[in-house]
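This section describes the prediction task in plain terms. A model, or a person checking by hand, is given the sequence of a single protein chain and must write out its three-dimensional structure as a string of C-alpha coordinates. No templates, partner chains or ligands are provided. The sample shown here is typical of the held-out split.
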Amino acid sequence: MTHGASFVLAVVVIALAFDFINGFHDAANSIATVVSTRVLSPSAAVVWAAAFNFIAVFLFGTAVAKTMGKGLVDLAVVDANVILAGLVGAIVWDVITWWLALPTSSSHAIIGGYGGAAVAKAGFTALLFPGKWISTLEFIVIAPVMGLTIALVLTVALSWMLRRSLPRRVDRVFRVLQLGSAAAYSLGHGSNDAQKTMGIIVGLLVAEQQLFAGSPISALHLTDAAVVPAWVIVACGAAMGLGTMSGGWRIVKTMGQRLTKLTPFGGFCAETSGAITLFVASHFGIPVSTTHTITGAISGVGAAQRLSAVRWGVAGRIVWAWLLTIPASAGIAGLAYLVLRGLIR
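The expected answer:
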Protein backbone atom coordinates (compact mmCIF):
# COMPACT_ATOMS: atom_id res chain seq x y z
CA MET A 1 0.00 0.00 0.00
CA THR A 2 1.34 3.42 -0.94
CA HIS A 3 0.83 6.34 1.40
CA GLY A 4 -0.85 9.59 0.43
CA ALA A 5 -1.95 12.88 1.94
CA SER A 6 -4.61 11.24 4.12
CA PHE A 7 -2.01 8.93 5.65
CA VAL A 8 0.27 11.88 6.42
CA LEU A 9 -2.64 13.73 8.06
CA ALA A 10 -3.36 10.62 10.13
CA VAL A 11 0.26 10.69 11.33
CA VAL A 12 -0.21 14.36 12.30
CA VAL A 13 -3.20 13.32 14.42
CA ILE A 14 -1.10 10.56 16.03
CA ALA A 15 1.60 13.16 16.77
CA LEU A 16 -1.01 15.26 18.56
CA ALA A 17 -2.12 12.12 20.41
CA PHE A 18 1.48 11.70 21.56
CA ASP A 19 1.43 15.30 22.77
CA PHE A 20 -1.72 14.48 24.75
CA ILE A 21 -0.02 11.39 26.22
CA ASN A 22 3.05 13.53 26.95
CA GLY A 23 0.88 15.88 28.99
CA PHE A 24 -0.86 12.93 30.66
CA HIS A 25 2.41 11.15 31.42
CA ASP A 26 4.22 14.29 32.60
CA ALA A 27 1.32 15.77 34.56
CA ALA A 28 3.14 14.59 37.66
CA ASN A 29 6.05 16.88 36.84
CA SER A 30 3.81 19.91 36.96
CA ILE A 31 1.55 19.05 39.86
CA ALA A 32 3.25 16.49 42.13
CA THR A 33 4.78 19.09 44.43
CA VAL A 34 1.71 21.30 44.74
CA VAL A 35 -0.55 18.26 45.33
CA SER A 36 1.76 16.54 47.82
CA THR A 37 1.98 19.73 49.90
CA ARG A 38 -1.85 20.01 49.74
CA VAL A 39 -1.73 23.57 48.45
CA LEU A 40 -4.13 22.52 45.70
CA SER A 41 -6.43 19.56 45.28
CA PRO A 42 -5.54 17.19 42.44
CA SER A 43 -8.43 18.44 40.28
CA ALA A 44 -7.56 22.11 40.80
CA ALA A 45 -3.85 21.41 40.27
CA VAL A 46 -4.29 19.81 36.86
CA VAL A 47 -6.43 22.71 35.63
CA TRP A 48 -3.85 25.19 36.95
CA ALA A 49 -0.98 23.32 35.27
CA ALA A 50 -2.85 22.77 32.00
CA ALA A 51 -3.67 26.46 31.67
CA PHE A 52 -0.04 27.50 31.99
CA ASN A 53 1.11 24.63 29.74
CA PHE A 54 -1.06 26.14 27.01
CA ILE A 55 -0.09 29.77 27.68
CA ALA A 56 3.60 28.84 27.44
CA VAL A 57 3.46 28.11 23.71
CA PHE A 58 2.78 31.79 23.03
CA LEU A 59 5.56 33.14 25.24
CA PHE A 60 8.79 31.29 24.52
CA GLY A 61 9.34 31.19 20.76
CA THR A 62 10.01 27.98 18.84
CA ALA A 63 13.73 27.31 19.29
CA VAL A 64 13.17 23.80 20.64
CA ALA A 65 10.72 23.00 17.81
CA LYS A 66 13.36 24.02 15.25
CA THR A 67 15.90 21.73 16.90
CA MET A 68 13.47 18.81 16.67
CA GLY A 69 12.37 19.69 13.14
CA LYS A 70 15.77 20.04 11.49
CA GLY A 71 18.55 19.67 14.07
CA LEU A 72 18.58 15.95 14.89
CA VAL A 73 17.70 13.93 11.79
CA ASP A 74 18.47 14.56 8.11
CA LEU A 75 15.16 15.58 6.54
CA ALA A 76 16.22 13.88 3.32
CA VAL A 77 15.55 10.49 4.92
CA VAL A 78 12.39 11.52 6.80
CA ASP A 79 9.00 10.38 5.58
CA ALA A 80 5.65 9.52 7.13
CA ASN A 81 6.78 5.99 8.03
CA VAL A 82 9.82 7.29 9.93
CA ILE A 83 7.71 9.77 11.89
CA LEU A 84 4.98 7.22 12.62
CA ALA A 85 7.49 4.60 13.76
CA GLY A 86 9.18 7.18 16.00
CA LEU A 87 5.84 8.07 17.57
CA VAL A 88 5.01 4.40 18.10
CA GLY A 89 8.32 3.89 19.89
CA ALA A 90 7.73 6.90 22.14
CA ILE A 91 4.08 6.11 22.89
CA VAL A 92 4.73 2.43 23.70
CA TRP A 93 7.59 3.33 26.05
CA ASP A 94 5.51 6.05 27.73
CA VAL A 95 2.65 3.63 28.35
CA ILE A 96 5.01 0.97 29.75
CA THR A 97 6.69 3.38 32.15
CA TRP A 98 3.38 4.97 33.14
CA TRP A 99 2.08 1.52 34.07
CA LEU A 100 5.23 0.89 36.12
CA ALA A 101 4.77 4.34 37.77
CA LEU A 102 8.22 5.45 36.59
CA PRO A 103 8.59 9.19 35.82
CA THR A 104 10.68 8.73 32.67
CA SER A 105 11.13 11.34 29.98
CA SER A 106 8.60 11.66 27.16
CA SER A 107 11.11 14.07 25.61
CA HIS A 108 13.84 11.48 25.41
CA ALA A 109 11.29 8.87 24.31
CA ILE A 110 10.37 10.90 21.21
CA ILE A 111 14.01 11.79 20.54
CA GLY A 112 15.01 8.13 20.81
CA GLY A 113 12.04 6.98 18.74
CA TYR A 114 12.66 9.54 16.00
CA GLY A 115 16.36 8.71 15.83
CA GLY A 116 15.78 4.95 16.00
CA ALA A 117 13.30 4.99 13.12
CA ALA A 118 15.65 7.11 10.99
CA VAL A 119 18.56 4.74 11.68
CA ALA A 120 16.37 1.75 10.77
CA LYS A 121 15.72 3.37 7.40
CA ALA A 122 19.11 4.80 6.42
CA GLY A 123 21.69 3.82 9.04
CA PHE A 124 23.50 6.08 11.46
CA THR A 125 24.28 8.61 8.72
CA ALA A 126 20.64 9.69 9.04
CA LEU A 127 21.53 11.37 12.34
CA LEU A 128 22.90 14.91 12.17
CA PHE A 129 25.73 14.11 14.53
CA PRO A 130 27.10 15.89 16.46
CA GLY A 131 24.75 18.85 15.77
CA LYS A 132 22.21 19.27 18.55
CA TRP A 133 22.70 15.68 19.71
CA ILE A 134 25.64 16.61 21.93
CA SER A 135 23.81 19.31 23.91
CA THR A 136 20.69 17.12 24.11
CA LEU A 137 22.62 14.15 25.49
CA GLU A 138 24.68 16.36 27.80
CA PHE A 139 21.50 17.75 29.33
CA ILE A 140 20.45 14.26 30.39
CA VAL A 141 23.01 14.87 33.12
CA ILE A 142 23.07 18.69 33.24
CA ALA A 143 19.30 19.25 33.67
CA PRO A 144 18.82 17.19 36.86
CA VAL A 145 22.15 18.35 38.31
CA MET A 146 21.27 21.96 37.52
CA GLY A 147 17.80 21.52 39.08
CA LEU A 148 19.31 19.84 42.14
CA THR A 149 22.00 22.49 42.59
CA ILE A 150 19.67 25.49 42.23
CA ALA A 151 17.13 23.87 44.58
CA LEU A 152 19.81 23.10 47.15
CA VAL A 153 21.22 26.64 47.08
CA LEU A 154 17.75 28.23 47.12
CA THR A 155 16.59 26.05 50.01
CA VAL A 156 19.68 26.79 52.11
CA ALA A 157 19.59 30.54 51.32
CA LEU A 158 15.89 30.95 52.12
CA SER A 159 16.19 28.79 55.23
CA TRP A 160 18.94 31.07 56.53
CA MET A 161 16.99 34.23 55.65
CA LEU A 162 13.85 32.93 57.39
CA ARG A 163 15.57 31.27 60.36
CA ARG A 164 13.91 33.63 62.86
CA SER A 165 10.42 33.42 61.33
CA LEU A 166 7.64 31.40 62.88
CA PRO A 167 7.23 28.05 61.06
CA ARG A 168 3.44 28.49 60.90
CA ARG A 169 3.82 31.89 59.21
CA VAL A 170 6.42 30.56 56.76
CA ASP A 171 4.11 27.71 55.84
CA ARG A 172 1.18 30.08 55.28
CA VAL A 173 3.22 32.45 53.07
CA PHE A 174 4.71 29.68 50.95
CA ARG A 175 1.32 28.11 50.37
CA VAL A 176 0.51 31.28 48.43
CA LEU A 177 3.94 31.56 46.79
CA GLN A 178 3.76 27.95 45.64
CA LEU A 179 0.86 28.81 43.37
CA GLY A 180 3.24 31.11 41.49
CA SER A 181 6.10 28.61 41.43
CA ALA A 182 3.77 25.86 40.18
CA ALA A 183 2.58 28.18 37.42
CA ALA A 184 6.20 29.02 36.52
CA TYR A 185 7.13 25.35 36.33
CA SER A 186 4.10 24.59 34.15
CA LEU A 187 5.16 27.43 31.84
CA GLY A 188 8.60 25.83 31.61
CA HIS A 189 7.03 22.43 30.96
CA GLY A 190 4.86 23.81 28.16
CA SER A 191 7.71 25.87 26.71
CA ASN A 192 9.92 22.82 26.20
CA ASP A 193 7.74 19.72 25.86
CA ALA A 194 5.00 21.02 23.55
CA GLN A 195 7.63 22.29 21.12
CA LYS A 196 9.04 18.81 20.55
CA THR A 197 5.83 17.67 18.88
CA MET A 198 5.68 20.94 16.92
CA GLY A 199 9.07 20.09 15.45
CA ILE A 200 7.99 16.55 14.59
CA ILE A 201 4.88 17.77 12.76
CA VAL A 202 6.76 20.47 10.86
CA GLY A 203 9.50 18.00 9.89
CA LEU A 204 6.86 15.57 8.61
CA LEU A 205 5.00 18.16 6.52
CA VAL A 206 8.23 19.55 5.03
CA ALA A 207 9.43 16.02 4.17
CA GLU A 208 6.07 15.20 2.51
CA GLN A 209 5.49 18.65 1.01
CA GLN A 210 4.95 17.33 -2.53
CA LEU A 211 1.70 15.69 -1.39
CA PHE A 212 0.24 19.08 -0.44
CA ALA A 213 1.60 21.25 -3.27
CA GLY A 214 -1.85 21.61 -4.81
CA SER A 215 -3.85 21.26 -1.61
CA PRO A 216 -6.77 23.65 -1.10
CA ILE A 217 -5.58 23.92 2.52
CA SER A 218 -2.43 25.96 1.99
CA ALA A 219 -1.44 25.71 5.67
CA LEU A 220 -0.49 22.07 5.10
CA HIS A 221 2.08 22.89 2.43
CA LEU A 222 5.27 23.63 4.38
CA THR A 223 8.63 24.10 2.68
CA ASP A 224 10.84 25.40 5.49
CA ALA A 225 11.43 23.50 8.74
CA ALA A 226 12.62 26.72 10.37
CA VAL A 227 9.08 28.16 10.26
CA VAL A 228 6.49 26.82 12.69
CA PRO A 229 2.93 27.80 11.63
CA ALA A 230 0.53 29.23 14.19
CA TRP A 231 -1.92 26.34 13.77
CA VAL A 232 0.78 23.83 14.76
CA ILE A 233 1.70 25.91 17.82
CA VAL A 234 -1.92 26.15 19.00
CA ALA A 235 -2.74 22.50 18.28
CA CYS A 236 0.29 21.19 20.19
CA GLY A 237 -0.29 23.52 23.13
CA ALA A 238 -3.93 22.49 23.35
CA ALA A 239 -3.13 18.76 23.11
CA MET A 240 -0.57 18.98 25.90
CA GLY A 241 -2.89 21.04 28.09
CA LEU A 242 -5.71 18.54 27.66
CA GLY A 243 -3.34 15.68 28.47
CA THR A 244 -2.22 17.40 31.64
CA MET A 245 -5.85 17.90 32.67
CA SER A 246 -6.35 14.15 32.31
CA GLY A 247 -3.67 13.60 34.96
CA GLY A 248 -1.25 10.81 35.74
CA TRP A 249 -1.83 9.96 39.36
CA ARG A 250 0.39 6.86 39.57
CA ILE A 251 3.48 8.96 38.84
CA VAL A 252 2.29 11.82 41.07
CA LYS A 253 2.64 9.47 44.03
CA THR A 254 6.21 8.53 43.11
CA MET A 255 7.30 12.12 42.48
CA GLY A 256 5.46 13.87 45.29
CA GLN A 257 5.56 11.34 48.12
CA ARG A 258 8.08 8.56 47.65
CA LEU A 259 11.14 10.57 46.60
CA THR A 260 11.18 12.91 49.62
CA LYS A 261 8.64 14.56 51.90
CA LEU A 262 7.80 18.09 50.78
CA THR A 263 6.38 21.15 52.56
CA PRO A 264 5.04 24.24 50.76
CA PHE A 265 8.46 25.84 51.33
CA GLY A 266 10.21 22.86 49.74
CA GLY A 267 7.68 22.67 46.93
CA PHE A 268 8.30 26.33 46.13
CA CYS A 269 12.07 25.80 45.99
CA ALA A 270 11.77 22.70 43.80
CA GLU A 271 9.33 24.25 41.33
CA THR A 272 11.26 27.52 41.08
CA SER A 273 14.53 25.67 40.46
CA GLY A 274 12.91 23.45 37.84
CA ALA A 275 11.34 26.43 36.09
CA ILE A 276 14.67 28.30 35.90
CA THR A 277 16.37 25.24 34.39
CA LEU A 278 13.62 24.80 31.78
CA PHE A 279 13.57 28.49 30.84
CA VAL A 280 17.33 28.41 30.18
CA ALA A 281 17.10 25.23 28.08
CA SER A 282 14.13 26.52 26.04
CA HIS A 283 15.92 29.81 25.36
CA PHE A 284 18.86 27.94 23.83
CA GLY A 285 16.67 25.49 21.90
CA ILE A 286 17.74 22.41 23.88
CA PRO A 287 15.06 19.70 24.21
CA VAL A 288 15.45 18.59 27.83
CA SER A 289 13.56 16.29 30.11
CA THR A 290 11.11 18.02 32.40
CA THR A 291 11.00 14.77 34.38
CA HIS A 292 14.75 14.74 34.96
CA THR A 293 14.67 18.41 35.88
CA ILE A 294 11.97 18.26 38.56
CA THR A 295 13.32 15.00 39.98
CA GLY A 296 16.71 16.65 40.45
CA ALA A 297 15.08 19.72 42.01
CA ILE A 298 13.01 17.66 44.48
CA SER A 299 16.13 15.69 45.43
CA GLY A 300 17.99 18.98 45.97
CA VAL A 301 15.33 20.16 48.42
CA GLY A 302 15.55 16.89 50.34
CA ALA A 303 19.36 16.91 50.35
CA ALA A 304 19.36 20.44 51.80
CA GLN A 305 17.70 19.03 54.90
CA ARG A 306 19.89 15.93 55.13
CA LEU A 307 21.05 13.33 52.62
CA SER A 308 18.91 10.66 54.26
CA ALA A 309 15.79 12.74 53.55
CA VAL A 310 15.98 11.60 49.92
CA ARG A 311 14.95 8.02 49.26
CA TRP A 312 17.93 7.27 47.04
CA GLY A 313 16.65 3.76 46.28
CA VAL A 314 13.62 5.28 44.53
CA ALA A 315 15.86 7.84 42.84
CA GLY A 316 18.16 5.06 41.62
CA ARG A 317 15.22 3.17 40.10
CA ILE A 318 14.21 6.36 38.29
CA VAL A 319 17.76 6.91 36.97
CA TRP A 320 17.88 3.40 35.53
CA ALA A 321 14.63 4.10 33.68
CA TRP A 322 16.17 7.34 32.36
CA LEU A 323 19.20 5.49 30.99
CA LEU A 324 16.98 2.96 29.24
CA THR A 325 14.57 5.48 27.67
CA ILE A 326 16.45 6.52 24.52
CA PRO A 327 17.74 3.04 23.55
CA ALA A 328 14.43 1.35 24.45
CA SER A 329 12.25 3.78 22.50
CA ALA A 330 14.76 3.70 19.61
CA GLY A 331 14.62 -0.09 19.51
CA ILE A 332 10.81 -0.17 19.55
CA ALA A 333 10.69 2.51 16.83
CA GLY A 334 13.22 0.66 14.68
CA LEU A 335 11.11 -2.49 14.78
CA ALA A 336 7.98 -0.48 14.08
CA TYR A 337 9.64 1.09 11.02
CA LEU A 338 10.60 -2.32 9.59
CA VAL A 339 6.99 -3.47 9.95
CA LEU A 340 5.61 -0.26 8.41
CA ARG A 341 8.06 -0.44 5.51
CA GLY A 342 6.70 -3.86 4.61
CA LEU A 343 3.09 -2.63 4.77
CA ILE A 344 3.18 0.95 3.51
CA ARG A 345 5.37 2.39 0.76
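For orientation: The mean pLDDT is 83.
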